[in-house]
Every structure is written in C-alpha cells, then in structure tokens.
Amino acid sequence: MNIFEAILMGAVEGVTEFLPVSSTGHLTILEKLLGYRLDDPDITAFTVIIQSGAVLATIIFLMKDITRIVPAFFKGIANKEAREHPDFRFAIAVILGSIPIVIAGLTFKDAIETTLRSLWFVAGALILWSGVMAFADHAATQVRHEDDVTWKDALVIGVVQCLAVIPGISRSGSTMSAGLLRDLDRVTVTKLSFFLSVPALTGASLLQGYEEFDNISNGVGWTNTIVATAVSFIVAYFAVTWLLKFVAKHSYSVFIFYRLALGALLMLLLATGTISAQ
C-alpha cells in the first residue's frame, strides 16, 4: 500500500462511516479495486482500525452532549431521584444498546473476517437493506424525541445493529432504521447511532490493533494505517456535521437510491466476471 492509497481509503472511511451506506462495504469494494485480497489479516485489520479516526471525530463533535450525559449517569448511580432524568436514561440506553454488537462481534469474528468479506454479501446487503430503510423511512411517525429514548429502544436498536457485521448493511443504516421503527425522529436516531458507534468501533479497533499488530507491520504498514486513520478523522468530522443538518430536513431517500445503484452495479461486475468476489 502506498501513501496515496492510504489517504484515499481514509477519506472513503470518513465520508461513509456515519452515512447509512456502509463504510465497510465501500472499503471492501475499494480494496478489491486496488488489488488487495479481502481476507488477508492485515487488510481486514486495517479496515477496522481506521474507523477509530471517525470515532474520535464523533466524540469531539458530541462533546457538549457527552459532558452533559456522563455526569448525569454518575449522579443517577448515586441518587435514585436523578435516575429519572432524561440524560441518565439516555446514558443507560447507550450502554445497553452497545452490548449486543460486542457479543455478536466476538461470536462471529472468524466469519466476519473471512466469509462475510465476499463482495456478493456486500452487493446483496446493499440492495436488501435498502428495502428495510425505505419501509422504516415511510412508516416512521417520528413522534418521539431524545428525551423519550428508553432502554427498550436502545436494546432493540442494539440487537438490530448486530446485522451490521455483514458488510453492506451499514451500522448506521441498521440503527437508524430500527430507531425510526420505534417512532423516534431522524435527528434523535442519528445522534443515538453516533453514540452507539463509540464503544462498538473503539473496541473493535483496539482488538484488531492488538491481535494483528505484526500482520499490519509486515503488510499494509503502521504508517499507512495511521495516515488513513488521521484522514478519516478529518473527513468524518465534516461528514457528521453535514449529516445531522441534512436529516433534520430530508428523508433517507437519497441514500436508499445510492445503495440500490451501487449494489446493482457491483452485482453486474461480479456476474460478468469483471471483478472477483474475494
């Protein structure tokens, strides 16, 4: 991997991480187009680790919310009356919603790093989950807001988020769809998706960095990995800012049409043998 490829992949990660279009699916496609073998341990680890740049951008973007919610959580632990505060409930929701993806990630780790990296899975997931997103976007009443989020909402959203281990479904796409079907408004489900990304992606990045340290050193290289992570951080910050403004006034239709078009194109390329699946 050269430095220009690292910058390109970091930029793609930053743009797509929080849009409901699947960052892993996009990186998998790009890595294949650049000639990498998708199930190589260093490529798999690289794909996961550079997500930490986007996570850091999210933490900075949400800092005002974090400095409000974290103290409320600790107050709620010490004080029964404080547990009724919406910020405490939101903190509990984020914690509970993060548990399912940890279990799923550890349980299906081998399949995630090998079988599910096939571009057939990416193409199929892009198309099929577009139908779920379209239904959720149409059926949502959006009558509930951030103060209405409960632990039940987060648990349901967290379980659905587990489907995002399949590249192409999209972690943000799964959480946003589940949130809309719980009648939460688009801005609330988008922010909740941001919060749920922090423990999930941070844990995955640290685990891959620890387990695949030597493979990265001898493969794509840590310099390229760090550069791509830094680029993803910069790009993701602007992407997050734009997305929240966008969903406040628009539906997810543009993302749905994009997913369908990309999935169909990818299937055509695979079916004609233009590119291989793995």
Verbal overview:
The protein contains 14 helices and no strands. It has one domain. It is mostly helical.
Radius of gyration equals 18 Å
**The biggest beta sheet, please?**
none
Kindly name the structural category: mainly alpha
Order of helices and strands: HHHHHHHHHHHHHH
Described by the principal axes of the CA atoms, the overall outline is: globular
User: What's the pLDDT, averaged over the residues?
Assistant: 89
- How many domain regions? 1
Low-confidence stretches: none
Percentage beta strand = under 5%
Any descriptors?
mainly alpha; globular; 278 residues; 14 helices; 75% helix
Summarize the structure.
The protein is an all-alpha fold. Helix content is 75%, strand content 0%. The longest helix is centred in the last third of the chain and has 26 residues, at 186-211.
Layout of helices and strands, plus pairs?
Elements lengths: L2 H14 L6 H11 L7 H9 L1 H11 L1 H16 L7 H22 L1 H5 L5 H21 L11 H11 L9 H11 L4 H26 L1 H6 L3 H26 L5 H19 L7
Helix pairs in contact: 1-2, 1-13, 3-11, 4-11, 4-13, 5-6, 6-9, 6-11, 8-10, 8-14, 9-10, 10-11, 11-13
